[in-house]
Every structure is written in structure tokens, then in C-alpha cells.
Amino acid sequence: MTTWIIRTDEPGDGPRLAVKDAMDVAGLPTTAGCQAVAERAEPAAADASVVASARAQGARVAGKANLNELCMAADGVNPWAGTPVNPLDPSRVPGGSSSGSAVAVATREADVAFGTDTSGSIRIPAACCGIAGLKTTNGRVPLDGVYPLSPTLDVVGPIGRDVAGVVLGMSLIEPGFAPVPFDPSATIARLRVDGVDPSIDAAVDDALRRLGPITDVTSAHYADAATANGIIVSDEGFRQNGHLLDDPSKLSGRILRRIQTMGDVSGAGMLDWAVGVQKSIRAELGGILARHAVIALPVLTCVPPEPDEADESDLALTALAGQINVAGLPAFALPVPLPGSHLPASVQLIGPAGGEERLCGVAAALEAALS
Question: What is the model's pLDDT at position 1?
Fold first, then answer.
């Protein structure tokens, strides 16, 4: 069990940055947490754009953090590279796919981390480890030098122990990034969805009420958008990784079967339907955000589970997250108290496209209200 694929601990006084090993760091191979990729990988000729930007701001790379194999699962379990230990409860999954990035920050082995998020892969491990994470607006952060899963949905974003840590991460990506203070007169749209543990819903509601008035809203397209995420990821993910089926011995059984399933889904002719759902969920959530400062709902439907050997068990962790990748919107994961549990819940704050500054301001206000 390990947090890191490669530990570097570069010297210096700047913030220690954990880089998910789906991003290039000059002089080091990028493995994507996969034996099949690792055995073919050459040392990167240059840093990924986000890593280069961070270095220019004085960050020092602490290492390349572990992840789910090929970024293709959400629990953090990796039979080849090992599974990072959830610092809140070692019996439970750390979340993924940016598992090592979240654990490195939560255990203070790094001050900030970069992760990728295609179906929740920043928000889910942040929620599982009781820290903060930001899925950025699709297209805002360059993906040069990032191992692709689904280029339409992939984003890079920061993970921090708290809101300040996430803001630090954004400033490493975009020098001068600064939150916009929350307007206390603004309203919060509380999105209600089926399948959430009532205690999680109650914890999120209690936290949000400390910030200001909330208005319940529903979505006609949220369930379909989860399916659309799977279709788009399957179509693009198979094109990116289908060639790895040529040597199945270098893949774990779960990921081998997942790539095969991606091929089946990709060939089923459903992409046009998924693109139609994408347009619908963007319009629907955009309309809600025209009336409210943010949309809020949990990150997870339940507390982090124990590892489960069933192939599809991890997909439950994405139940509330992948829809936001389809919509292309930014989303902030922030821990909130869960009465009666040693684990927190996590609220997901969704803002308009390009609205990370205001979203971080809302998260900072909520964090302060909970302190």
C-alpha cells in the first residue's frame, strides 16, 4: 500500500506539490498507475503545462502520486501499484482515481496536489479523505502532458487540506488567482437527487443553512447525465486505451474487463444520445445558476465504503459526480460534519462555467461558518 509511484522530495522553500502520475514531470516516466503503460514509458521530455506553471511559481515536486489504473476507477484500489491508505479509516477506500494525491495532502506529505477529474476523480478522494478539492471548468486548465482518458471530459484541478490549500493550487496553475468574496444575500440551490443516505443529506443541509437561505431544486436530466458520462468516457476511453488489450497480462482483471466493456459501449451507437443529454444538462443547470449563486448537493451518497471485489462496486462513488463533467461546470468538494460518525460528509458546490473564483469564495464562507 503506497501513496506514491515515485517520490522525489525536491529541495527548496516553496510549497510541496504532489502530482498525480497521469501528468508528465520532466525526467520521470508517466505510468498512469498501469503496468502496461509503465513498461513502455520513457522519461518525460518536459513538464506538463500545469506542472511547469507550478514550478514557475516556486512549487517543488514532492513526487508522482498513485492512482487508479489508467484513471479508470473511483475507489483508489490498484492491484499493481498498491492502494493508498485512507487516513481517516484504513478499513475504507481512499477514493479515486486521484487517490495518492488526496492521501498525500491529507497526511501532510504534500501541501497541495494536482489531480485529474473525468467522473469525479478529484472530488471523490477529497470526500473520502476529509479534505477539499476543485474540479475546474472543462477547458480552463491546459491538458498538455496529461495522460488522456476522455479528452472531452478530462480536467486538471487542485486538492488541498482546506479552501486555502485549493486556492494555493489554483494560484500555482493560474498566477494571480483570487477568490471573490461570497455575497451573503445570494441564494443557494439545493439539488435533491434520489439514492442519498438520509444522514448525508441532513449533514449537507445543516451545513448549508449556516451559510444562508437555500432553495430546493430538482433536475430532469441528472440521472441521464450519469449515463451520458459513461457513454462518452467509454467511447473516448476505448480509443485511448483499447490497444492495451493486446497484452491483457499487463492489466488487472477489473480494468481489462472495463476496457472490453468500453469497447462494447462505444460500438453501441449511443454517442449522439449522450451529446444530446449533455446539451440538456448544461442548459438546465445553467438556468438554475442564473437564479442562484451555486448549486449544492453531496459528493457521495454514503460514507466511503470498504473495498469490494465486485467489478462495478466503485461506480457507486461516481453517482453524483460525473454529471458535472458532462455539464462542463466547476465543482468544489468540501468536508462537512456528519453527526454520529468518525467520518465527515462532503458537500459539492457547483458554479457557472469559468466561475472558480466565486466558487472558492462560497467555499471559504461555508468553511468559516462551520469553524
Answer: 55
